[in-house]
Design goal:
- With about 700 residues, the protein is of the alpha/beta class.
- Helix 7 packs across helix 8 (about 205-240) and helix 9 (about 250-260) packs antiparallel against helix 11 (about 295-310).
- The two termini are about 30 Å apart.
- The protein is built from 24 helices and 22 strands.
- The strands form 4 sheets. A 7-stranded mixed beta sheet has the order 6-7-4-3-2-5-8. The chain has a 7-stranded parallel beta sheet with strand order 12-13-11-14-15-10-16, with helices on both faces. A 6-stranded parallel beta sheet has the order 17-22-21-18-20-19, sandwiched between helices.
- The structure holds adenosine-5'-diphosphate and magnesium ion.
- Magnesium ion binds next to helix 11.
């Protein structure tokens, strides 16, 4: 970076630390987050509090420092031909006083608010009207860059950054190489890479800005998809897998003598898809999407039995101990009668037992292993692991998934199951290297869960409802969110809730269980088991019960402080009930006043039970940055594309990537050289293509 004019060692260091900008190339890829159109101005008399922001051209009338010491603030009155408005600064008062002087003209940009019944603008951005450092004044759009306090202190506020970008662009002219093929550029009518990068920083007009954005969004999504599709094709071609030819005794015995219900059409279809994969001679990498309660576990179980029938071992990795334990209990119950050896391995497995299990895995005696993260530790080795199932995947990173590959000399088939559906665009990006199966049917006889919303003032009604339900033999969950940063405070909150419940639902008529993250596994299991057996009617818990727990007789889910939960989480919790034949209920308890975001989430819950719809709404409400699993995947590194808004571009980018790799898998043709060269260059920079380049 020091090669760049205007950037000495100190600033260069800061750019690295604060913004991850190491090279001129990085700097050029640091895009403005918005633009100011310097030709459009509001008249002061037209301003009201509803505009998102305003830009005014006017003259400073009067400047004064109001308040004293720490409360000192600079107040300036700005006037145009229609009226006056107050500008207020609390910081940098001394410096601003010299700059903002009566009689001078400024362009002011900011968010107007009403204070004491009057409109004012606090901390506006200001510019002299004849701003002319770089000949920019002829331009219409000015870039605005995100900066940090530390950078600002070194003169790299938005304007400072725009100056060094401007210089970098001057230097880069003629040197920015194309990374897409001529064919794509022509077909999609894209601007060149160089033109796009110039115009994303300094667009001449709206059209050139739009074209630059379109090109750069496509490019960004295209290279992600190219990588994922390549990974997928590579595995299909090069990585042979164990071939499971036979459906044997285990599968047949289980299906005909053990399974207590008929499979749904969707379950049968998906099992067929998986069987075909596992019999194809290629390693399977498949994602199973299905709403809560759609019966993913039994699908996984049948597939594991296929592996066993072919002489291989199988495992399921779950995100929490409770869930791993529950899988263990269900599966052991089912399989004991068939003489199949099933073991459970978690963080709290005692070392003696652990040693035994590890040995039995190597000598092949243990056929199915259930567990948590403990399962991917290096010491865990199998004799012949044929299938690895990852349940509730969104808690696992892509890197953890890869570790399962190393469990044998040959990578096992891999089946990933999501806890709740994820939106298609996200699936395409997060799991773009996997084939997808969908369970789009719930087992028969389920009544949709009725969802109701109560404000805190209706608490008494809710309690009498609980009483009624328990009288008819049902069980009830009451879930508390993690609210505070500190676990102790959360626990206190939970314990207060618990105490209140116990007071209202006393022994001997009622028994209440409690489960939270800070209990020992043994205690947790004990409490869970009491609830499962029906010895307690109420389960007070934190979100540790969120995923997977299955107690068919529990038909009421009460979510306290529901406004604190994300939408997927609410849906996931609701999925804990509605598993038996009785009418189930989900009661969302919130404070009586709600933010508009919270209201939108609650509204979505009341509107639909469909997990796929919920997933789409969730992505829209939260944006991809907050979706679990994205952090590890690197997708939050997106510079410019947006997984919600740019769905069309994403689909197209994937399509183009597939077409390209199908025709030219190694990207060897002359036409594809720009793409190949760019990947090699990026590889050197980040090493992101790893093994497949
Ligand atoms: P999820 O997809 O959320 O993991 P589970 O596998 O836990 O769902 O299944 C939810 C419940 O539905 C379990 O109690 C399971 O026994 C039951 N179930 C699964 N498949 C069927 C089916 N075909 N018919 C009836 N009940 C089923
Ligand atoms: Mg499940």
């Amino acid at each position: 970076m020091e090669f760049c004019k205007g950037v000495g060692p100190a600033r260069s260091d800061l750019l690295k630390k604060e913004l991850n900008i190491f090279t001129i190339g990085d700097l050029l890829m640091y895009f403005p987050f918005r633009y100011v159109d310097k030709t459009v101005f509001h008249k002061i008399s037209d301003i009201n509090e509803n505009q998102p922001y305003v830009q005014i051209k006017g003259r400073i009338r009067k400047v004064e420092i109001a308040g004293m010491g720490r409360n000192a603030r600079l107040v300036a009155r700005l006037a145009d031909e229609t009226g006056e408005i107050e500008l207020v600064w609390f910081n940098g008062v001394k410096w601003l006083k010299d700059k903002v002087q009566p009689g001078l003209d400024f362009i002011v940009f900011g968010k107007q608010t009403i204070f004491n019944g009057k409109l004012n603008i606090t901390h506006p951005e200001i510019d002299t009207v004849n701003y002319d450092d770089t000949g920019e004044s002829k331009r219409r759009f000015y870039p605005v860059y995100a900066s940090t306090e530390k950078l600002k202190a070194k003169g790299l506020d938005s304007k400072g950054i725009s100056k060094i970008v401007y210089k970098a662009l001057e230097d880069a002219a003629g040197k920015i190489t194309e990374n897409l093929t001529g064919e794509i550029i022509t077909k999609l009518n894209l601007v060149s890479r160089e033109e796009a990068i110039f115009n994303i920083h300094y667009p001449h007009d709206n059209l050139s800005l739009k074209k630059a954005q379109g090109r750069l969004k496509f490019e960004e999504l295209f290279f992600i998809q190219l990588r994922l599709v390549k990974l997928k094709l590579y595995r299909n071609k090069k990585i042979s897998g164990f071939t499971f030819n036979s459906v044997g005794k285990y599968v047949n015995d289980f299906y005909h003598h053990v399974l207590p219900y008929n499979l749904t059409g969707a379950q049968k279809r998906v099992i067929k898809e998986i069987r075909r994969d596992m019999g194809s001679g290629q390693q399977m990498n498949r994602l199973l999407q299905g709403d809560v309660g759609s019966g993913k576990t039994v699908v996984a179980l049948m597939c594991m039995l296929i592996a066993l029938d072919n002489g291989y071992q199988a495992c399921i990795m779950a995100p929490t101990e409770i869930l791993a334990t529950q899988h263990y209990n269900t599966i052991k119950n089912f399989l004991q009668q068939l003489g199949i050896h099933v073991k459970l391995l978690t963080g709290s497995t005692k070392s003696v037992e652990r040693k035994k299990i590890l040995e039995s895995l190597i000598n092949g005696e243990t056929q199915i292993l259930l567990g948590t993260h403990a399962l991917i530790e290096e010491v865990v080795k199998f004799k012949s692991l044929g299938l690895a199932v990852i349940d509730e995947q969104h808690r696992f990173g892509v890197a953890q998934r890869a570790k399962l590959w190393e469990k044998g000399s040959f990578p096992p088939h891999i089946l990933v199951m999501t806890a709740t559906p994820i939106p298609r665009t996200l699936a395409m990006t997060l799991y773009g290297d996997l084939d997808v199966s969908v369970l789009d049917e719930l087992p028969p006889g389920r009544k949709p869960v009725k969802t109701l919303h109560f404000g805190d003032s209706n608490r008494l009604k809710v309690f009498s409802f609980i009483r009624e339900q328990i009288k008819t033999g049902r069980q009830v969950y009451i879930v508390y969110p993690l609210i505070h940063e500190s676990e102790t405070l959360d626990l206190k909150h939970l314990m207060e809730g618990y105490d209140a419940i116990v007071r209202d639902f006393p022994l001997p008529d009622y028994a209440v269980s409690i489960v939270h993250g800070q209990m020992k596994t043994k205690e947790k299991d004990y409490e869970m088991a009491r609830f499962v057996k029906g010895e307690t009617q109420i389960m007070v818990a934190t979100t540790v019960i969120e995923v997977g727990v299955d107690v068919p007789n529990a038909s009421v889910m009460i979510i306290e402080n529901a406004e604190r939960f994300g939408l997927s989480q609410l849906h996931q919790l609701r999925g804990r009930v509605g598993r038996g034949a009785d009418q189930s209920f989900c009661l969302l308890m919130t404070s009586d006043k709600l933010s508009s975001d919270a209201r939108a989430r609650i509204g979505a819950m009341l509107e639909t039970n469909d997990g796929f719809r919920i997933a789409e709404l969730d992505l829209k409400l939260r944006g991809p940055g907050n979706i679990e699993g994205l952090q590890q995947s690197g997708i939050t590194d997106l510079h410019i594309a947006d997984l919600v808004a740019d769905e069309k571009i994403l689909r197209y980018a994937r399509h183009v990537a597939m077409e390209m790799l199908e025709r030219d898998p190694e990207l060897e043709s002359i036409g594809n050289k720009p793409v190949r060269d760019f990947i090699i260059k990026e590889n050197k920079r980040k090493g992101s293509w790893g093994m497949i380049s």
